[in-house]
Design a protein that fits this description.
This protein has seven helices and 15 strands. It is an alpha/beta fold. The strands form three sheets. It has a five-stranded mixed barrel, surrounded by five helices. Strands 7-9-8 form a three-stranded antiparallel beta sheet, with no helix packed on it. The protein has a two-stranded antiparallel sheet with strand order 10-11. The relative contact order is 0.22. It comes from Ambrosia artemisiifolia. It holds the Pfam family PNP_UDP_1.
């Protein structure tokens, strides 16, 4: 079945976190199912067309490991010319609002840490620090800086952010490179600029609407971790330290696989809440997550429409 399916490729691969985010696409009038479904290793690969472009949809499941597995299976089994990842996200950027769809230029995994021994500080080297080992280059979080009683000390001390080890497709096996900020494909990013004027949904019903019309925004950075972030202090730290906007649990897994396999990718994440609270919109994620999921689908479908003329042989990263 895989061999037969590949005769109709290459495909755009759409990696989607869960059914809550997949259903709006399955119900979108521009998605036409071919009725072909291939189940493999616990994943279901759904085949269809969006604006006459062949696509494969796969649900990843929650978290970076699931996202990476689903993406690698997609790339290993099928002829894929590019990967689009979409869904909802928390927001760390106070200049953005619920319902906005973010297009991040870079993605990171922000939960690969070296947790420093209590008593050591920024001037002290980390265990195994050196060539190919841990690093203090990216920066650290000092827990004592967030004490509610003003005491600049905490037994949790510091954590230092670490890059991922990646295994590029064209490198010597078992020789790795380190990367913290994974860039999206520059051609995809350039094409996506046209989406910034796209009109998005702003109302759930006649009485429940967003306080500000949502928009599509290109942002510098997004980040993923196997953590549901609902903490205002850490949200603020991520924004101030790294200029991060969307925060969620899957995109970096997709990004790292595509980066290593040299497959162009892009991620569209619609903001469903201000991580940790503080938004003027009551109930936030509980109220507007469905609207945000719909907006991420609107942007994804329109992006695929814009892809006409894209040269799949040019894999260009920023």
């Amino acid at each position: 079945m895989v061999d037969e399916a590949n005769k109709n490729g290459p495909y755009l691969g759409l990696v989607i976190p869960n059914m809550f985010e997949m259903n709006p696409l399955l119900n979108n009038p521009h998605y036409k199912s071919t009725k072909l479904v291939i189940d493999y290793a616990g994943r279901r690969f759904r085949f269809g067309n969006i604006y006459n472009k062949p696509v494969i949809l796969v649900m990843s499941g929650m978290g970076m490991v699931n996202a990476a597995i689903a993406t690698q299976l997609l790339l290993s089994l099928f002829e894929i010319k590019g990967v689009i990842h979409y869904g909802i996200a928390g927001n760390a950027n106070p200049n953005l609002n619920i319902g906005d769809v973010t297009i991040a230029q870079y993605w990171s995994h922000s939960a690969l840490w070296n947790w420093q021994r209590y008593g050591d500080g920024p001037e002290d080297s980390l265990p195994f620090e050196g060539e190919g080992g841990f690093t203090r280059d990216i920066g650290y979080l000092k827990f004592g800086s967030y004490s509610s009683n003003g005491v600049d000390d905490n037994l949790l001390n510091n954590v230092w952010y670490q890059p991922e080890e990646v295994y590029p497709l064209d490198s010597t096996p078992e020789q790795t490179q380190q990367v913290f900020w994974v860039p999206v494909d520059s051609n995809y990013l350039s094409i996506s600029k046209a989406l910034e004027k796209l009109k998005l949904e702003d109302c759930i019903n006649a009485t429940t609407c967003l306080s500000k019309p949502p928009k599509v925004s290109t942002v510098q950075r997004g980040t993923s971790a196997n953590i549901y972030l609902d903490n205002a202090a850490y949200r603020s730290f991520l924004y101030e330290k790294f200029n991060i906007s969307p925060v969620e649990m899957e995109s970096a897994g997709v990004a790292l696989i595509c980066y290593q396999q040299k497959v162009p990718f892009i991620t569209f994440r619609a903001l469903s809440d201000l991580a940790g609270g503080g938004s003027a919109s009551s109930n936030e994620a509980d109220t507007f997550s469905g609207l945000s999921a719909n907006n991420s689908v609107i942007v994804t479908v329109e992006f695929i429409k814009l892809l006409a003329g894209y040269n799949r042989k040019i894999l260009s990263y920023v």
